[in-house]
Design goal:
Elements lengths: L3 E6 L3 E5 L3 H10 L1 E3 L7 H4 L6 E3 L7 E3 L3 H10 L3 E6 L25 H12 L1 E6 L5 H12 L3 E5 L2 H13 L4 E5 L2 E2 L5 E5 H8 L12 H17 L4 E5 L7 H8 L6 E6 L8 H11 L2 E5 L1 H6 L5 E8 L13 H10 L2 H16 L4 E4 L3 H13 L4 E4 L5 H13 L4 E4 L14 E4 L6 H9 L11 E8 L4 H16 L26
Parallel strand pairs: 1-6, 7-13, 7-14, 8-11, 8-12, 9-11, 12-13, 15-20, 16-18, 16-19, 17-18, 19-20
Antiparallel strand pairs: 1-2, 2-5, 3-4, 9-10
């Protein structure tokens, strides 16, 4: 007869009860990870340590509650019977099928949104892996309305914090801002920045202040206050959750002792190079409970069907060599590469002839300013928004693009997340780079379903082959597109606007 292992847990911690050494060993192994930098330690080099640590505490037989499902699977596969002991989740206080906006809940294409909330009610804690454009913000609104208990909406970006605060207020919720210079808490919804909460929660620095001093006691008081505040929340929602896997975030979640409901929203979980950081996300918010891919959204018409092309650069960049170091290569082969910048302008002008707006995404402000100048001199109606612009200015520029008052909007990474981007015809990935998270987000900026004409979008990138580093990044970007269902089958040599039903602006009827 196989051993029965009892796992008891609350909102924060799980515990093995009376488990054998063999069961403990299985859990310890399942929750182990390679510690970053271990290979540089003397113990590792001397073969006294294999470089691995674990989230399982041998002394207390405990581990973070978010691993409960993961541990259950690991023990079951090893032949153990698993008995789960927990308190019942708090009853949701909101309507079973809440309506959170003017769109209602009648569109079956979006059935995964209420399903995500139903799964959250079943599991208590989970990661929802929803592709960019799938309505993560709307899922958050549904969860808040259905559970209807004190909620903490946690993000790393002020733009997201304020945007969601507006949406929750529009639902009739009382909303407070915790972060960006504000320290307010609501009994209904509090929108907060991870950095601000972590700053209040941290221990006093013994190198900067001594115990008993006024500064020391002031930080202790802040810490105590924040711990008390975090204990009030019963639902925590993590937006763009892949960004919040650091130690400070982990500390925040450990102090949300009454947050039995936890929902992490992200298109790209577990994308960190650090294995421990990836596991912290699961430790704090649970397993992946639902996955919604780009292909599903495209097939349902929620996203436009994307077409990708990679522009070959036939004129070499001055003074750029295969061996040029990366930072210098970006300057010469991207930012100040006149021929490449002219190709970007040509793409935008060609799109405008077919009455399509263009969004150009850059990595550096200097590049955006250069492109703004090139496009303006070419007669294009263009605006450039960057990190120094406030939220109202960004929203106004996006609205002008949506109305067609401008032909081109240039943006830095402030457009990657947390903004409602209107329907746009062409996305130009002008900044290079290789980060998968940023690339998926940037492509997603152009995939919003089109209100008029064919439901397609066009994404232009560059075959940056003139330098070893830039070429490697280009190949990484292209490989990601090629390997993504819904993307890879739509790589073309050029955009056939007329063949897809678009009419030239100067055509005679």
């Amino acid at each position: 007869m196989s051993e029965t292992v009892t796992v008891a847990y609350n909102a924060v911690t799980a515990k093995l009860v009376g488990a054998s050494d063999e069961a403990q060993s299985k859990v310890r192994a399942a929750l182990s990870y390679m510690q970053a930098g271990a290979e540089h330690t003397a113990a590792f080099k001397a073969h006294r340590w294999d470089g691995r640590s674990t989230f399982f505490d041998n002394a207390t037989q405990t581990f973070p509650r978010g691993f409960v499902q993961y541990v259950h699977v690991a023990l079951s596969k090893a032949g153990f019977q698993v008995r789960m002991v927990k308190k019942l989740l708090p009853e949701p206080l909101g309507p079973e099928d809440p309506v959170v906006d003017e769109f209602g809940n009648g569109d079956p294409r979006y059935d995964y949104q209420p399903e995500t909330v139903r799964l959250l009610l079943r599991h208590g804690q989970m990661i929802a892996q929803i592709a960019t454009g799938g309505g993560k913000s709307r899922i958050a609104q549904m969860a808040v309305a259905r559970i209807n208990r004190p909620t903490l909406f946690l993000t790393t970006r002020s733009v997201l914090m304020y945007q969601m605060a507006k949406k929750f207020k529009k639902m009739g919720k009382k909303v407070a801002i915790l972060g960006d210079g504000s320290l307010q808490v609501s009994k209904e919804v509090t929108c907060a920045m991870t950095q601000s909460v972590a700053a209040w929660l941290k221990d006093p620095d013994p190198e900067k202040t001594s115990p008993g001093s006024e500064k020391y006691e002031k930080q202790r008081a802040k810490q105590k206050k924040m711990i008390e505040i975090l204990s009030r929340f019963e639902l925590v929602i993590l937006e763009e959750a892949h960004e919040v896997s650091g130690e400070s975030f982990f500390d925040i979640m450990r102090n949300c002792v009454n947050a039995h409901y936890r929902l992490a929203l992200t298109a790209t979980p577990f994308m960190k190079d650090d294995e421990e950081a990836n596991m912290r996300l699961m430790a704090s918010s649970g397993h992946v409970g639902i996955q919604v891919s780009e292909k599903l959204l495209i097939d349902r018409g929620i996203l436009a069907k994307p077409y990708f092309k990679y522009i070959e650069l036939r004129m070499p960049a001055a003074k750029l060599y295969r061996s040029t170091p990366w930072q210098r290569a970006v300057e010469l082969g991207i930012v100040h590469y006149d021929y490449r910048n002219k190709c970007i302008a040509v793409e935008a002008m060609r799109a405008a002839r077919y009455k399509l707006t263009t969004m150009i995404l850059v990595g550096r402000k200097e590049h955006g300013a250069l492109l703004e100048d090139v496009l303006t001199r070419a007669g294009m109606r263009v605006e450039f928004i960057q990190g120094s612009d406030d939220q109202d200015e960004r929203e106004a520029a996006l609205a002008r693009l949506g109305r067609g008052d401008i032909d081109v909007l240039i943006g830095t990474n402030i457009l990657d997340v947390g903004v409602d981007v209107p329907s746009v015809g062409v996305i130009v990935l002008a900044g290079g780079g290789k980060a998968e998270v940023a690339l998926r987000q940037r492509i997603g900026r152009g995939l919003r379903a089109k209100k008029f004409g064919p439901n397609v979008a066009f994404v232009a990138d560059f075959a940056d082959t003139g330098n070893t580093h830039l070429n490697k990044h280009y190949k990484t970007r292209k490989a990601l597109v090629e390997s993504t269902p819904g993307f890879g089958e739509n790589i073309v040599d050029d955009f056939d606007y007329a063949g897809m039903g678009f009419t030239r602006a100067d055509a005679v009827c």
